[in-house]
Amino acid sequence: MSSKQGGKAKPLNQPKADKKEYDEIDKANIQKKKDEEKMLKELKAKAQQKGAFGGSGLKKSGKK
């Protein structure tokens, strides 16, 4: 038999990672981080509705 194999070799199956158990402090930190991300998304959405900052944007003079 030849040692050459055609195509890609299949990756080895890795054992499934066990679920991490969190204590109260870790759970509070995770929840706080999720809340902050949610607030940032809401602020970004509000900022996009208002348009450019400053209102007028770039001003061009009529002189040449």
Automatic annotation (TrEMBL):
Spans annotated as Disordered: 1-64
Residue stretches of biased makeup (Basic and acidic residues): 16-45
InterPro entries (UniProt xref): TMA7 (IPR015157)
Protein name: Translation machinery associated TMA7
